[in-house]
Amino acid sequence: MRVAVADDSGIFRSGLTTLLSIAGIDVTADEATGAALLREVESDCPDAVVLDIRMAPTFTDEGLATAEVLRRRYPDLGVLVLSTYSETAYAARLLAASSRSVGYLLKDRVADLQTLTDALTRIVAGECVVDPDIIVRLLEQHRVASKLGTFSGRERDILRLMAEGRSNSRIGTELFISTKTVEAHVAAVFSKLGLYPTSHDNRRVLAVLSWLRANGEISGSGTA
């Protein structure tokens, strides 16, 4: 796997590139700004990019803006955005346009090599990876929203685990119920959100995105 990295912190960037190298991942670029990353990707497109959400010059959403540009120009490029804080508005904005080959993780997570490599492998394969803390916050923000209000406690658990990328068998293991029971709950979740079952890899986040759009948190145009 070939990965380009961008982060304004030289220390963090060095640590991240070291971790990637240990995992046998080829780091094609090591940049401090989104603009520099865009230039590198244009000249040598990797399999994925990893970038901080806050970079120079304003240290607000430069990384996110860069990620949005990359996703428009290179739809098949995996994009993993990192943040120090669990900012749900940024996560919703990143996922609004498409939930394919994209990830949003807290920086603390990627200190674990297995978590980092697993996230990148899944993203490059076309999946979506969202930090569990983000999912919990998204769900909590709208717990009393009209559609979520129709969910049973078990269905909310199912939705949360689906959004975290769990398979039906894994959900069953975590909730101590059979896979067949999980399938029934999944069908109910999709039905209540007006979603039909799909074979796409990103199904686990489609329910969350549909629910957020229905409640006005994000729009179909990709803005928060």
Please, how many helices?
10
Quick check: average pLDDT?
A: 81
Q: Helix amount, in percent?
A: 40-55%
Helices and strands, in N-to-C order? EHEHEHEHEHEHHHHH
Overall form: elongated
* Major sheet description: 6 strands, parallel
Query: Count the strands?
Result: 6
Architecture overview:
This protein is α/β, with parallel strands linked by helices. The protein is built from ten helices and six strands. It has a six-stranded parallel β-sheet with strand order 2-1-3-4-5-6, sandwiched between helices. Helix 7 (153-163) crosses helix 10. The protein starts with a strand and ends in a 10-residue tail after the last helix.
Summarize the structure.
The protein is of the alpha/beta class.
Distinctive features:
single chain; 224 residues; alpha/beta; six-stranded parallel β-sheet; 50% helix; disordered C terminus
Layout: helices, strands, pairs:
Blueprint: E1 2-6, H1 10-22, E2 26-31, H2 34-43, E3 48-52, H3 62-73, E4 78-83, H4 88-96, E5 102-106, H5 113-124, E6 128-130, H6 132-141, H7 153-163, H8 168-175, H9 179-192, H10 203-214
Parallel strand pairs: 1-2, 1-3, 3-4, 4-5, 5-6
